[in-house]
Amino acid sequence: MTLEIKTQHQLKATNTNLPFYFFLSFSVPALALLILFMQQVTSGTEVFGDKAIENFVSGFTNSSTVFFFTFITNFVTTGSVITLLVISLVLIWWKSRDYAAMIVLAVGTYLSDEINQWLKITIGRERPSIDVSVFAEGHSFPSGHAMVGIMFYGFLTYFVFSMLKNSKHKLILVITMSVIIFLIGLSRIVLNVHYPSDVIAGFAAGFIGLVIMILLHKGGRTIFHQKLKKG
């Protein structure tokens, strides 16, 4: 009987981790894509797909879409992220006392911006244009909105996903947040403050960072639980 219960528990744990293992498998292609784009940008080679995507996006760019994507791009301004971060930390503490998640979210969000700034300075790619009415400063590659956006909102999605029990709610959450993260990246192309390759590279770098954040959270939560049992 004990053996049967243990086996069922192991199967449940394995099924819970399957989405993450599937998610983790994409980190290697993401790293390869990031390295490829970095090599092309630093060598001065035109990145494959940039022109085609820019031409496609320009086809539906008008005053209405610019207004909409200006709103969307503000989801990853410094003020927005700090405000949402503080609210998220308070809610995580209140609902679950998951200190590992709080630490990983706070440190990960901070480092995502620092690493992005370091990459921008290192690569030194100039932006396609600078519009003072749009939040954009410094160099272009990779997109900070895409990188910080996928790490910050992606980790929140992962955390809430792990708390939910209803499969439909999980699906709605993943689809909704995936669309929001995608639109944040797209907004930088529509507003002409980033090349498409900047955004794709930002997503790739942010995805790798997100996987690391999730791994750290899983390890940190285990350590916290062990300390609580000993205490």
UniProtKB/TrEMBL annotation:
It comes from Litchfieldia luteola. The lineage of its organism: Bacteria, Bacillati, Bacillota, Bacilli, Bacillales. Coiled coil: none annotated. PANTHER family: AT30094P (PTHR14969:SF13), SPHINGOSINE-1-PHOSPHATE PHOSPHOHYDROLASE (PTHR14969). Pfam families: PAP2. Keywords: Membrane, Transmembrane, Transmembrane helix. Residues 101-214 form the Phosphatidic acid phosphatase type 2/haloperoxidase domain. The chain crosses the membrane at residues 20-38, 66-92, 99-119, 144-164, 171-193, 199-217. This is Phosphatase PAP2 family protein. It comes from the Bacteria. SMART domains: acidPPc.
